[in-house]
Write a structure and sequence with these properties.
This protein has about 200 residues and is of the alpha/beta class. It has helices spanning about 10-25, 50-60, 80-90, 100-105, 115-120, 135-150, 165-170, 185-190, and strands at about 1-5, 30, 65, 95-100, 120-125, 150-155. The chain has a 3-stranded parallel beta sheet. It has a 3-stranded parallel beta sheet with strand order 4-5-6, sandwiched between helices. The longest helix is centred in the C-terminal third of the chain and has 15 residues, at about 135-150.
Length: about 200
């Protein structure tokens, strides 16, 4: 599962757990983006090192969750097809799944080399029953499977109505986000004064 994870939150972890159970996966790799092509760098509030550290804190103690730094450590722009082909070719004994959201599935043909993305792995397209319709997604899945000889499956995502952008704004306003992020991540955000707030209690 790739993402800026700025910050990582409980919804990301819940999605990972859902993928593990629904598809009997061995591991979930959380891969913070370093230089994503689809985002303006100014929209990413924390550098890759900080976002990777928050990710490590979030998955600490979860044996089947792993931090993968392949993209975070690259200086060049990371394209999904390059990343997926790298792991496919370097770990030929493993089968890889790529978790994406419903919006990404509907827009995937605008990505760089979508044919290579869709051939490199099995796509798990996450949808939420309150927002996305399986019918619309199934139409897109059928279309992409036929056109690209892809293997796309529906992943039923847990309901958690929060985004990293909303959490950043809430933190900036001084609101408590402890219900939405792992405890160690919340403490790190306060200690480092990320997103424009610093808790005096966490001063050395």
């Amino acid at each position: 599962m790739g993402g800026t994870f700025d910050p990582i939150h409980n919804g990301h972890l819940m999605l990972g757990e859902a993928a593990l159970s629904q598809f009997s996966l061995d591991e979930i790799w959380f891969m913070p983006n370093g230089n994503p092509p689809h985002k303006d760098r100014s929209s990413i509030q924390s550098d890759a090192r900080v976002r990777a550290h928050m990710t490590a804190l979030a998955i600490e103690g979860r044996e089947r969750f792993r931090l993968e730094l392949y993209e975070a450590e690259r200086e060049s722009v990371s394209y999904s097809y390059e990343t997926l082909e790298h792991f496919r070719d370097s770990r030929r004994g493993d089968k890889f799944y790529f978790i994406i959201g419903a919006d990404s599935l509907l827009a995937i043909e605008t990505w760089a080399s979508p044919d290579r993305v869709l051939r490199a792995c099995t796509i798990l397209a996450a949808y939420r029953g309150d927002m996305d319709t399986p019918e619309e997604m199934n139409v897109q899945i059928h279309y992409l499977n036929e056109k690209y000889d892809a293997d796309i499956r529906l992943l039923r995502a847990p309901l958690m109505d929060v985004s990293s952008r909303e959490l950043r704004e809430a933190i900036r306003r001084g609101e408590d986000v402890a219900a939405y992020v792992p405890e160690k991540v919340a403490a790190y955000i306060r200690k480092e004064g990320l997103y424009g707030r610093k808790d005096p209690k966490d001063e050395p």
